[in-house]
Design goal:
Helix 4 links the parallel strand 5 and strand 6. The protein has 2 domains: about 230 residues, Alpha-Beta Barrel (TIM Barrel), CATH 3.20.20.370; about 60 residues, no CATH class. It is α/β, with parallel strands linked by helices. Strands 1, 4, 5, 6 and 9 form a 5-stranded parallel sheet that branches. It is globular. The structure holds zinc ion (ZN). Zinc ion binds next to strand 5.
Length: about 325
């Protein structure tokens, strides 16, 4: 193993940067959001990271990578989209451990907006059971007698909506809600202006994530540039600081963004951009396509083992 890694030019011990992806931190576990971390587990993870890693913001880490002065064990905590619990739940935990995160904001959803995936979850949560009949709008009939069934219905509906064009998707979500009225859906899932300012004032890095969370490859180059710049300018006006990093919506290389978008961000004066391609970043990495990974699972032993392994060895193959 050691010999093989040496042949590749990355002997065991080369510094590698782990960038972790989070979206929400729930106050308590939610059976309808099994993929989201809760406060207790997040606290355990942050406590481990603060003790064993140098936690950096994405821009700090990109500069360190570029200047080949990355600390031996380095990590970034990142949040995508701009959820209110990044401030109300995650921030106090981060502050207790002296950790700073990077929060990527899709500005169009701030102040009472809701991403379609959340609309589906909250709609199915509130829908009266045992059956959700959306046959009239072409979205099927779903059994929702138990949490497991509700979760299945959520997944099925999200899949049906995911690949529609944004405007068409908004219309279909409206039709879905009208077909089975459930009352008011929450309007406080995302950060508001004051909350975003608080996050920035607390020292967390605020990065761009477009206005509407539109996948860049679905836009013309001019359209992509407008989404990036409008989101960035909106944040900069609000927080009074430059926005230096960016997270590609969806984030898969080639399918969701390409090298042209990375070059555009460089031209626009950004310092770093992150994808959702799983891996760790090594010195000399393209700082406009930094890989990230999601810390899955509830086991702290597995989390710790994986973080340490990735920090020591480096390279996408190390990520499990
Ligand atoms: Zn996102």
């Amino acid at each position: 193993m050691l010999a093989a890694l040496s042949l590749l030019g990355w002997p065991r011990g080369a510094p590698a940067l782990s960038i972790l992806i989070y979206h929400r931190v729930l106050p308590v576990p939610d059976p309808l959001r099994p993929g989201e971390i809760d406060a207790a587990l997040f606290e355990a993870q942050v406590s481990f990271l603060a003790k064993h890693f140098t936690l950096m913001t994405v821009t700090e880490a990109a500069l360190a990578l570029r200047e080949r002065r990355l600390p031996q064990r380095a990590a970034c905590i990142t949040f995508d989209d701009g959820y209110a619990d990044n401030l109300t739940v995650a921030h106090p935990i981060l502050a207790r451990h002296g950790a700073k995160a990077t929060v990527f904001i899709a500005t169009g959803y701030l102040n009472g907006g809701r991403m379609f995936s959340d609309t589906v979850i909250e709609f199915v949560r509130l829908a009266a059971g045992p059956q959700l009949d959306l046959g009239s709008v072409g979205m099927g009939v779903h059994s929702i007698a138990t949490d497991e069934e509700r979760l299945k219905a959520i997944t099925a509906l999200q899949v049906q909506l995911k690949y529609l064009a944004p405007a068409e998707r908004d219309e279909q979500v409206k039709r879905m809600a009208a077909a089975h009225p459930v009352g008011a859906l929450p309007q406080d899932l995302m950060l508001n202006d004051a909350q975003l300012r608080q996050l920035a004032d607390a020292g967390h890095e605020i990065g761009g994530h477009t206005v509407d969370h539109t996948v860049l490859t679905t836009l013309t180059p001019e359209g992509a540039r407008a989404q990036v710049q409008q989101g960035r300018e909106w944040i900069e006006r609000l927080i009074g600081r430059p926005v230096r990093s960016f997270a590609y919506p969806n984030g898969r290389p080639v399918r969701d963004y390409d090298a042209g978008h990375a070059a555009m961000l460089r031209d626009l004066g950004f310092e770093a951009a992150v994808s959702t391609s799983a891996g760790v970043a090594l010195p000399g990495a393209d700082v406009f396509q930094l890989p990230r990974y999601t810390p899955w699972g509830r086991s702290m032993t597995m989390f710790a083992a994986r973080m340490m392994r990735n920090a020591r060895i480096g390279g996408p193959a190390a990520v499990v």
